[in-house]
């Protein structure tokens, strides 16, 4: 049994060059995820599609990568007390059904020969939309996703450290809590009382996105949890990770049953991203993510254009355009990851010089 | 159209997902240990004595 995992289609089914590429790409993706708290899987599925993997394999392996990343991040957040287990348990059901609906859609589109094209177009819209919001936020100093609460569609490291009772429930969440009172009502951490159906609806909608695109969906789920349910930001971060472990694990299992999870892709990606995430996370202690968020927004916009170019190349049967798209996706991620590392090392050196001067 | 699937027991797929889970836990523990062992040395190398300056 193990030989079938390690053999055909498994680790040994991937050439050493591709293994090295996946480890390197995982490292880059990990730095971005660790530093910005988002974008862990945005680029993986599009890159796999441009590498000519079938849509189910690209999405399924992307989802298995998200599962592995969520396990690592949840272990890290384990002791921070930022997980609402009741909320997570309710969300798991909705998210899992949503993921399955998304997965069924992928296989249906695949049977029509449309999956790769439709998913690529969805990524163009998604990367372009999120990229535009992040870039606008970086240029105006405003907020999106978590908005003024510091959600940023990802992990706001300062916000995550604040006490839960410092948070005010957003007005829109209060309105939803007052108007949608379909039983059963549940009480969550931070004295949030909300209908279980609101939670399930949020979980299902973001689950469909996850299952269809192979992403964790935290960049949508966290703002949704904050604004639709009224969950404090740190709890939204921890609970999101906790429930992705289960729903992502089950989603990966279902994709795996259809042959959609390739260990030769997932294992090296995880190997690189686990290290990169540590480096990126450590860098947040030195550099303010807001300072270089504009590069991250630019990377997502370039990624959107790159996926579009790759898809046009695929449609026209032009390998040069397909290669250009792939180079742009990977290149943009590499440039931003290097910007993070360079800024971090430079900041550390400046700090050291200042301390040395002060000591003299 | 392939409909919504109800998960059925598949030992090979379970092993596949188990391997990914195991790898994630091993990487978390392994990189954590490496960070404690070589982190200060790497910082010195990159920053030029930052850790000792602190």
From TrEMBL, chain A:
Keyword Transmembrane helix on entry: yes
InterPro entries given in the database record: TM_pro_TauE-like (IPR002781)
Pfam families: TauE
Ranges in a coiled coil: none
Keywords: Cell membrane, Membrane, Transmembrane, Transmembrane helix
Keyword Cell membrane included in the entry's annotation: yes
Transmembrane stretches, start-end: 20-44, 56-75, 113-134, 194-213, 225-245, 265-287, 294-317, 323-345
UniProt record similarity statement: Belongs to the 4-toluene sulfonate uptake permease (TSUP) (TC 2.A.102) family.
Protein name: Probable membrane transporter protein
From TrEMBL, chain B:
TM annotation in the entry: 14-34
InterPro entries registered for this protein in UniProt: DUF7512 (IPR055934)
Organism taxonomic ancestry: Archaea, Methanobacteriati, Methanobacteriota, Stenosarchaea group, Halobacteria
Record organism: Halorubrum trapanicum
Keywords on record: Membrane, Transmembrane, Transmembrane helix
Name of the protein: Uncharacterized protein
């Amino acid at each position: 049994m193990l030989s079938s995992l390690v053999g055909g289609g498994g680790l040994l089914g991937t050439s050493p060059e591709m293994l090295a590429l996946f480890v390197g790409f995982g490292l880059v993706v990990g730095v971005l995820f660790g530093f910005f708290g988002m974008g862990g899987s945005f680029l993986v599925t599009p890159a796999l599609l441009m590498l000519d993997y079938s849509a189910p394999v690209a999405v399924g392996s992307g989802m298995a990568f998200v599962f592995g990343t969520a396990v690592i991040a949840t272990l890290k957040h384990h002791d921070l007390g930022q997980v609402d287990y009741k909320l997570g348990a309710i969300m798991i059901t909705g998210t899992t059904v949503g993921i399955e609906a998304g997965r069924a859609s992928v296989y249906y589109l695949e049977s029509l020969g449309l999956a790769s094209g439709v998913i690529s177009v969805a990524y163009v819209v998604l990367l372009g939309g999120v990229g535009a919001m992040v870039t606008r936020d970086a240029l105006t100093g405003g907020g999106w996703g978590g908005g003024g609460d510091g959600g940023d569609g990802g992990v706001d490291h300062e916000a995550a450290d604040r006490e839960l009772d410092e948070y005010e429930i957003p007005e829109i969440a209060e309105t939803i809590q007052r108007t949608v009172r379909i039983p059963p009502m549940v009480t969550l951490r931070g004295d949030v009382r909300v209908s279980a159906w609101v939670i399930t609806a949020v979980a299902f909608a973001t689950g469909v996105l996850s299952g269809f695109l192979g992403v964790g969906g935290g960049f949508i789920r966290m703002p949704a949890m904050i604004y639709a349910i009224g969950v404090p930001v740190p709890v939204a971060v921890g609970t999101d990770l906790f429930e992705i472990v289960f729903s992502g694990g089950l989603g990966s299992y279902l994709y795996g049953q259809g042959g959609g999870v390739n260990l030769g892709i997932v294992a090296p990606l995880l190997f690189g991203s686990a290290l990169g995430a540590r480096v990126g996370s450590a860098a947040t202690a030195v550099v303010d993510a807001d300072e270089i968020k504009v590069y991250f927004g630019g990377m997502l916009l370039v990624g959107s254009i790159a996926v579009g170019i790759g898809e046009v190349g695929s449609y026209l049967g032009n390998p040069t355009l397909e290669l250009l798209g792939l180079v742009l996706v990977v290149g943009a991620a590499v440039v931003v990851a290097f910007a993070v590392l360079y800024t971090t090392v430079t900041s550390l050196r400046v700090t050291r010089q200042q301390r040395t001067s002060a000591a003299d | 159209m392939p409909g919504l699937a109800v998960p059925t027991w598949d030992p090979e797929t379970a092993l596949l997902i188990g391997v990914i889970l195991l790898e994630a836990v091993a990487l978390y523990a392994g990189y954590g240990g490496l960070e404690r062992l070589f982190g200060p040395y790497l910082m010195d190398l990159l920053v030029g004595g930052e850790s000792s300056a602190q």
